[in-house]
Amino acid sequence: MVLNYIWIGFFLVAFVMALGQLLMGNTEVFPAIMGSTFASAQTAFEISLGLTGTLSLWMGVMKIGERGGLVDALARVLSPVFTRLFPEIPAGHPAFGHIFMNISANMLGLDNAATPLGLKAMEEMQSLNQQKERATNAMIMFLVLNTSGLTLIPVSILVYRAQMGAAQPTDVFIPILLATTVATLAGIVITSLYQRINLLNRAIVGTMLGLCLLVSGVMWLSTQVERETMNLYSTSIANVLLFSIIVLFILAGVRKKVNVYEAFIEGAKGGFETAVRIIPYLVAILVAIGVFRASGAMDIVVGGLTRGIAACGWNTDFVAALPTAIMKPLSGSGARGMMVDAMQTYGPDSFVGRLSCIFQGATDTTFYILAVYFGSVGVRNTRHAVSAGLLTDIVGVVAAIVVAYAFFG
Question: Which residue from 109, 57, 72 is spatially nearest to 270, judged by alpha carbons?
Answer without folding.
Answer: 57
